[in-house]
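Quick log. Single chain, no ligands specified.
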Amino acid sequence: MTADRVRVETPRPSDPKNVLAALAMLAASLPPYDRISVGFPGVVRGGRVLTAPNLGTKAWHGFDLAAELERILGKPARVANDADLQGLAVISRRGVEMVLTLGTGFGTGLYWDGRPAPHLELAHHPFRKGKTYEQQLGEAARRKVESAAGTGASASPSTSSANWCVSTACIWGRELEAHLLRATRRRGDRLQLGRHPGGIHLWTDRWVWRPLEPAGESSATC
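-> predicted structure:
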């Protein structure tokens, strides 16, 4: 399906009930569809939310978002971390790759031959000066940099510290973030601007979507 982008404001409080109502309203404005892909700002395993640090509520812990979307919208749904999802659209699927996403917050996705690693929420790890990556590279911090000078100095340590663990980095963002990052990326790093249809890969890449297995059980990798 190809349709114009639609958006609704994130509700407050951002608990499951309110967010699901907003998603249902958004979906109602779209043309007919057969399946649903969702990028969620937190750690997701098998469609179930484990963390949602930016939504300001603990109500998401353990919430089966995929199942609830299927119940409400009546279509099969798959949910992944939003940065992991965006990265699936731009990675080369060769070797170890990292995607850094810059939008409202700071997101990361790590991949090996195209397969996502378990999501680590690196944005909330300590970075420097007693702050996290999110606090120093989120939208609020970048606005301060832009208003002051906008040279990219604030972004440089983040890309350097990420590069030690990957052979290739792909930095994804909007035009504002491009100004901060063009001067700081290494040779071989790629800068992607705009939005990418990563959601289709939750359905076309057979190994991307596999729910967590119960303790003590195992299955063949396929």
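Residues 16-81 form a domain with the Nucleotidyltransferase; domain 5 fold (CATH 3.30.420.40).
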